[in-house]
Amino acid sequence: MNAGAVARGQEIGARRAATGSAREGAARAGLAARGVIYVLVGLLALRIAFGDSGGRQADRGGALQEIATKPFGAVLLWALGAGLVGMALWRLSEALFGAAGADGGKAGKRLASAGRCVFYGFVAYSVLAFAAGARGSGSGDRQSRDVTAKALGMPGGQWIVGVAGAGLVVAGGWIAVRAVMRKYHKHLKLAEMSRRVRRAVDTTGVGGGAARGVVFAAAGVFAIRAAVKYQPDQAKGMDGTLRSFASAPMGPWLLALVAAGLVLFGLFSFAMARWRKV
Asked: Are 77 and 68 in contact (CB under 8 A)?
């Protein structure tokens, strides 16, 4: 092998290493940013459960407002937005080149990554817009009602909203079941964890994933109700969905349980940022 071929091989290897490092950094920053949002939303929901919300909404907007009031809040908001951009770019790389694991290159996996890229791209945009001062877009509940109203006004709108709601219910059940079955194990570097750490991660993964799935499914039920009754105001965002648990038979205690689960999911996201295979 001549010197030119060796040099080209080394250059390609260096580029792959740099690309891998950038991808890993983006993924871990994004997972940590997601963790921050879920921990704050869960804490806000806990305050609502015990009658002290401080006027905050238990959704992404409320979490961002909470950050904005803290010292160096503006810097933290920009950092959070940057982390979520990293999450979107990581999912985009998975859609284009395949995810980690033996089945990461399958079409279904790539399609799912593309969907997550779009979702986190929207979330990143909303966070960066908030950081830049665009804070008057309204609550998540209002946005959900507006989107539902526009969808219901389209031809076949009731079917569109109903199918979307059913999709959320199915997605919520899928998230919860996979969490309980510990399907996330295949994405983690379990060999690098001690037994104590693994137990802690399983507590956050199972409890947090189950709570997240319940919230998704409940939001889907409200969307289906909006479609059936042809009433956009029946649709709810995360804040309205969480508050609805307070009117259930267990009252505020059910909301507190779900809120604690969202905090656990935030902590699980931090664990994923540390031990996920990228």
From this structure: yes
Residue ranges in the chain assigned as alpha helix (H): 3-49, 60-68, 73-97, 107-131, 140-152, 157-180, 195-229, 238-245, 252-275
pTM above 0.90, yes or no: no
Nearest to 238 by CA among 7, 5, 20, 45: 45
- Both structure tokens of 87: 């999450």
pLDDT digits (tens, 9 = 90+) for 121-179: 999 998 998 888 866 544 667 778 888 888 888 888 899 999 999 999 999 999 999 99
Specify whether the backbone of 70 is left (phi greater than 0), alpha (psi in -120 to 50) or beta: beta
- The tokens for 55 are 């006027």
Contacts by 145-153 with C-beta closer than 8 Å and gap 24+?
145/232, 145/233, 145/235, 146/232, 147/235, 148/223, 148/226, 148/232, 148/234, 148/235, 149/232, 152/226, 152/227, 152/230, 152/232
Q: How far is CA 210 from the centre of its chain?
A: 13
Asked whether the beta carbons of 259 and 58 are under 8 A apart, the reply is yes
Q: Residue 188 pairs with which residues in a beta bridge? A: 276
pLDDT in tens, 174-209: 999 999 999 999 989 999 999 999 999 999 999 999
